[in-house]
């Protein structure tokens, strides 16, 4: 599989080719390209393309988008989750052992990017991402589906979506958030009851605001909202350094330091007028990011229904330790779609161990990944890879063997 990570122009694909990245292992031969695609006179989008290691010309194309809004698909998605490399504490790159080789702007980017890399035209195409990309991805897919109507062989041959811990409908899903906080002991009985009492009626009411303030200011404490059981990053012992793999705080610091390097930015063909660029994983709202906060309140569930009717393959997955978009929140959003269950909730296996649970609906598959946080591929890369392979092949997740019963 080839994947593209895009964030918010190159004349041809050859000039976009990356010979090697600083710190890249000598034995890591990767066909990779990066640069800009100009959307209009004021906007251009940066991309990083990594081709599949084998049979690249026959593999599908995947676009990966991170959320935020305003967070980097390069710094998060590519370097911390599914890309070919991970940044080490010394600034070198290590080959990842398990690698996953606004709507109109994104659509314009795809069309112009395909002019730079025409060999990907008509290729089976999938869009994947997490968090607030639960808004971006369905909106982009809706534009593609509408533009493809009446076209027998579309250039952007969209086949499916893979959404991780997605923000879909806050109003419908919020009761699941309060439930998760309460069940896991993050908030008191009184605060939970106030959330149910006031927020169910009006999320903008004073009673609802007071309940949330009580929760965040006095009750929840210092918890990593992306994985409630994650340890802090410590760099002083061998054991702590070994633990860096899959630790969000460690990986973030290493990745930011690497991407701030002038040499790295030049290797990625960053616009020279921006170098040296003070790279951050997420843009700061109101400073270097402008977006509509009202967009976050819009439900994308009606769009998902449209896409289900368009017969796209749609999988939603959720890490069970995520606090930001917890599993019960996603379950409530899926329940609101009122889809018929084709195969009821069952456990799935990963290497003969419990990997999580799955439920299959007409037009949608929901996967829970046991023990994973918000960024599932970062916390549990092997389980995420198993799920991703099942998604691409449209094959069911492996069930555990039947329990043995014995008579006495």
UniProtKB/TrEMBL annotation:
EC number(s) from the headed UniProt entry: 3.4.16.-
Biological processes per GO annotation: proteolysis
Top-level EC class: hydrolase
Annotated localization: Secreted
Gene Ontology CC terms, in alphabetical order: extracellular region
Gene3D superfamilies noted in UniProt: 3.40.50.11320, 6.10.250.940, alpha/beta hydrolase (3.40.50.1820)
Family annotation (Pfam families): Peptidase_S10
Keyword Membrane carried by entry: no
Highest taxon of source: Eukaryota
Keywords, comma-separated and alphabetical: Carboxypeptidase, Disulfide bond, Glycoprotein, Hydrolase, Protease, Secreted, Signal
Single annotated GO MF: serine-type carboxypeptidase activity
Predominant subcellular localization, coarse grouping: secreted
Similarity section: Belongs to the peptidase S10 family.
Protein name per the record: Carboxypeptidase
Species whose genome carries this gene: Eucalyptus grandis (Flooded gum)
């Amino acid at each position: 599989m080839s994947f593209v990570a895009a964030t918010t122009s190159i004349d041809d694909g050859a000039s976009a080719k990356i010979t090697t990245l600083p710190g890249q292992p000598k034995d890591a031969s990767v066909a990779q390209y990066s640069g800009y695609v100009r959307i209009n006179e004021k906007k251009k989008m940066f991309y990083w393309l990594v081709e599949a290691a084998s049979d690249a010309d026959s593999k599908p194309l995947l676009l990966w988008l991170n959320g935020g809004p305003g967070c980097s698909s390069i710094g998060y998605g590519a370097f911390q989750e599914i890309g070919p490399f991970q940044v080490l504490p010394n600034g070198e790159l290590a080959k990842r052992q398990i690698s996953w080789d606004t709507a109109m702007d994104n659509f314009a980017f795809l069309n112009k990017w395909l002019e730079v890399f025409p060999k990907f035209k008509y290729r089976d195409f999938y869009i994947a991402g997490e968090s607030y990309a639960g808004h971006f991805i369905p909106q982009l897919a809706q534009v593609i589906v509408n533009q493809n109507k009446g076209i027998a062989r579309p250039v952007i041959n969209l086949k499916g979506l893979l959404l991780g811990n997605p923000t879909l409908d806050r109003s419908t899903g919020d009761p699941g958030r309060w439930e998760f906080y309460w069940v896991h002991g993050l908030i008191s009985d009184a605060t939970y009851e106030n959330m149910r009492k006031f927020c169910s009626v009006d999320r903008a009411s004073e009673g609802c605001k007071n309940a949330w303030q009580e929760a965040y200011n006095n009750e929840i404490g210092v918890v990593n909202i992306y994985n409630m059981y994650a340890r802090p990053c410590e760099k002083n012992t061998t054991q702590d350094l070994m633990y860096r793999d899959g630790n969000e705080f460690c990986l973030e610091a290493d990745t930011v330091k690497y991407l701030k390097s002038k040499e790295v930015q030049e290797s990625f063909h960053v616009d020279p007028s921006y170098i040296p660029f003070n790279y951050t994983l997420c843009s700061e709202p109101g400073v270097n990011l402008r977006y509509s906060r009202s967009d976050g309140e819009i439900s994308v569930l009606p769009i998902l229904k449209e896409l289900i009717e368009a017969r796209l393959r749609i999988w939603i997955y959720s890490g069970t330790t995520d606090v930001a978009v917890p599993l019960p929140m996603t379950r409530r959003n899926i329940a609101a779609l009122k889809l018929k269950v084709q195969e009821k909730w069952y456990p799935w296996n990963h290497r003969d161990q419990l990997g999580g649970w799955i439920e299959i609906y007409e037009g949608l598959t929901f996967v829970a990944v046991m023990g994973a946080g918000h960024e599932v591929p970062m916390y549990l890369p092997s389980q995420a890879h198993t799920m991703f392979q099942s998604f691409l092949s449209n094959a069911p997740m492996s069930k555990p063997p039947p329990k043995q019963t014995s008579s006495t």
